[in-house]
């Protein structure tokens, strides 16, 4: 299956470079590119896309606002945030806005291609080397200031097995990897993930990762 991708970055050379290297990867088709959030929204009204690679720091409409508006649309593509900065508040806000992943622009092209495939298939992409530091940098008060309740109490609703699964999600494991680690069927893991999201009132796996770190269930530096 071919994944249709839109590139959004205010630097033309970066867009050209990404187009060149990603089109060399099997199963990826670049269907368009845009230089800011406004242009991206307009483009997505004209082309069918599965995944948007989104820069965060752009003129006019930045990547956070664009991500929020894209994800509000019916049948919206997934968004993968690419940033130059290892600790970027905008990238964190992009995850909160509905992005399904966060990677640095110097990530090897094979890993970016794999990330595109993962989020197209419904997984989150949270690179441990960057996301653990990112989430450790922004404390629980950020969620509280945003109007979200402190998450710690809600974790009490989870069963011991669901706690285990949440910890492994937060460490970046896919459903298949969690199944192998816990010696469970992959279908059973999917059921556990669904129950975790429902019990905690979460939208997706990315929010589950954020909550796990913010609540202290998993700490930065753990592997």
UniProtKB/TrEMBL annotation:
A biological process (GO) of this protein is: phosphorelay signal transduction system
Q: Name one GO molecular function term.
A: DNA binding
Q: Which UniProt keywords apply?
A: DNA-binding, Phosphoprotein, Transcription, Transcription regulation
Which Pfam families does this UniProt record tie to the protein? GerE, Response_reg
Response regulatory domain residues are 4-120
According to the entry, every stretch annotated as the HTH luxR-type domain falls at: 151-216
Family annotation (InterPro entries):
CheY-like_superfamily, NreC/VraR/RcsB-like_REC, Sig_transdc_resp-reg_C-effctor, Sig_transdc_resp-reg_receiver, Tscrpt_reg_LuxR_C, WalR-like
Modification 4-aspartylphosphate occurs at: 55
Q: Which residues form a coiled coil?
A: none
Q: Which PANTHER family match?
A: TRANSCRIPTIONAL REGULATORY PROTEIN NARL-RELATED, TWO-COMPONENT RESPONSE REGULATOR
For this entry, the protein name equals DNA-binding response regulator, NarL/FixJ family, contains REC and HTH domains
Species whose genome carries this gene: Brevibacterium sandarakinum
């Amino acid at each position: 299956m071919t994944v249709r991708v839109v590139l959004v970055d205010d630097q033309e050379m970066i867009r050209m470079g990404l187009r060149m290297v990603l089109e060399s990867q099997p199963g990826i088709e670049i269907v368009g590119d845009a230089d800011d959030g406004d242009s991206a929204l307009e483009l997505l009204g004209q082309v069918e896309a599965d995944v948007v690679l989104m820069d965060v720091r752009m003129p006019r409409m930045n990547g956070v606002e664009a991500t929020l508006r894209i994800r509000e649309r019916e049948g919206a593509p997934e968004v993968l945030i690419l940033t130059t900065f290892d600790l970027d508040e905008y990238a964190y806000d992009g995850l909160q806005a509905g992005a399904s992943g966060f990677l640095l622009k110097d990530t090897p092209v094979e890993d970016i291609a794999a990330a595109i495939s993962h989020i197209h298939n419904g997984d989150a992409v949270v690179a441990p080397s960057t996301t653990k530091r990112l989430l450790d940098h922004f404390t629980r008060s950020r969620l509280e200031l945003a109007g979200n309740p402190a998450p710690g109490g809600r974790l009490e609703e989870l069963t011991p097995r669901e706690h285990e699964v949440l910890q492994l999600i937060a460490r970046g494991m896919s459903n298949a990897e969690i199944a192998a680690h816990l010696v469970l069927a992959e279908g059973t893991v999917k059921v556990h993930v669904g129950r975790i999201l429902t019990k905690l009132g979460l939208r997706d796996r990315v929010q589950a990762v954020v909550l796990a770190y913010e609540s202290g269930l998993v700490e930065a530096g753990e592997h």
